[in-house]
Specification:
This protein has one helix spanning 11-18. It has 37 residues and is mostly helical.
Length: 37
């Protein structure tokens, strides 16, 4: 369990980045904005 911070132009771009994460094979990924994009 842990977290990863990514930088993306918007939530759609963040979703595309998240789909390439190797941790996705082990479970789910939750996306949340740290600051308003």
């Amino acid at each position: 369990m842990g977290y990863t911070i990514i930088q993306a132009a918007d939530i759609s771009a963040a979703q595309e980045i998240a789909q390439t994460c190797p941790f996705l094979d082990m479970g789910d990924i939750e996306l949340a904005e740290l600051i308003q994009m």
